[in-house]
Write a structure and sequence with these properties.
This protein is α+β, with helices and mostly antiparallel strands. The protein contains 7 helices and 10 strands. It has helices at about 80-100, 105-120, 130-150, 190, 240-250, 270-285, 295-300, and strands spanning about 1-10, 15-25, 25-35, 50-60, 65-75, 175-180, 185, 210-215, 220-225, 235-240. The protein has a 5-stranded mixed β-barrel. A 3-stranded antiparallel β-sheet has the order 7-6-10. Helix 1 (about 80-100) packs antiparallel against helix 2 (about 105-120), helix 1 runs parallel beside helix 3 (about 130-150) and helix 1 runs antiparallel to helix 7. It is globular and about 65 Å long.
Length: about 300
């Protein structure tokens, strides 16, 4: 017996469906839903995406087989809105990259269900404010999943100085840097004064031309190679509002993009920038692109003509 949520489904054979399921008890499993593609199959609806079932599974030589499934909950409302559907598929991609087989995944299971439930409860209205809430929920879901995996970016302290960074809303030109290589936020004014970044790159080789010097000592020749110091790469510069968003994402509850005290200082543009920044950071750590990201871009283009990326 296992409780699992369907994250991926594909046709198998003449009428079966191959499911990739995240379970509390056994982590990620792949199992055949026999006859699920038949019109009157009892497993038809139970094998749809984002359906949570209690499952009886028979072990097979190569693939397991679902012998019984009873639905616990569904997230059918996600398919009624492009943004919700894209965001849920986005989160599913991250979960599939994190989950492991034959190991309990209760925390991951609970976290995914929590964020899918939050997405489903949002309005389907095409208003910018409601669409922004979808991007906001997605951004927090991404951050929470990264935090659970131990790879969330550092957003409270400067990665170089380890000093607290507080958003400065009084200066409209104030910015902080976000560096994927260093793992998070960089105080740009502090970064300019740092003489060396070599301690941040202990295992990386740089492809800059090095200089060699020959030294003669007591009849022996020694060659000394001087290697240029790595350069700090800033992937993007963030405003005070965008930093404030990042710093809040670790909280259990999401700040309301419309009703919060910062709503007048933070725009849809800011939320979109944060999502794209987290996407680039996540793709770097995964080593592959997030396919659902293109759906998010399509969704955001509906309510803003020139997105910030």
């Amino acid at each position: 017996m296992a409780t699992g949520i369907n994250l991926k489904a594909q046709p198998f054979g003449e009428s079966d469906r191959l499911l990739t399921i995240l379970t509390r008890e056994f982590g990620l499993i792949r199992a055949i839903a026999p006859g699920a593609r038949k019109a009157k199959s009892r497993l038809g609806g139970r094998s749809e995406l984002f359906v949570v079932n209690q499952l009886l599974i028979a072990k097979g030589r190569s693939l397991d087989k679902i012998t019984q499934a009873e639905t616990v909950t569904t997230y059918g409302g996600l398919s009624k809105n492009l943004g919700k559907l894209a965001a849920s598929q986005y989160l599913a991609e991250l979960v599939l990259s994190q989950a492991i087989s034959e190991h309990p995944q209760e925390d991951l299971f609970i976290l995914l269900n929590e964020h899918l439930n939050r997405l489903q409860s949002l309005s389907n209205s095409p208003l910018i404010s409601d669409s922004t809430q979808i991007i906001a929920c997605l951004s927090q879901g991404i951050f929470h999943l990264l935090a659970l995996a131990g790879t969330a970016p550092q957003v409270q302290l400067c990665c170089l100085t380890q000093r607290l960074l507080i958003p400065n809303f009084t200066d409209e030109n104030w910015r902080v840097g976000f560096s994927i290589d260093t793992g998070g936020i960089i105080n740009l004014s502090e970064g300019k004064n740092l003489p060396s970044l070599s301690h941040l790159y202990p295992k990386k080789t740089i492809s800059l031309a090095s200089k060699t010097t020959t030294v003669k000592e007591s009849g022996n020749l020694y060659t000394i190679e001087s290697v240029p110091q790595p350069q700090l790469k800033i992937n993007t510069k963030l405003t005070a509002g965008q930093l404030a968003i990042l710093q809040h994402l670790a909280q259990p509850e999401l700040v309301d993009p419309v009703a919060s005290s910062l709503s007048k200082l933070i725009s849809a543009w800011d939320w979109m920038t944060v999502e794209r920044t987290l996407r680039q950071y996540t793709e770097y750590h995964l080593g592959c692109s997030i396919r659902s990201g293109s759906l998010i871009d399509t969704f955001t283009h509906q309510f803003i003509v020139d997105p910030p990326f």
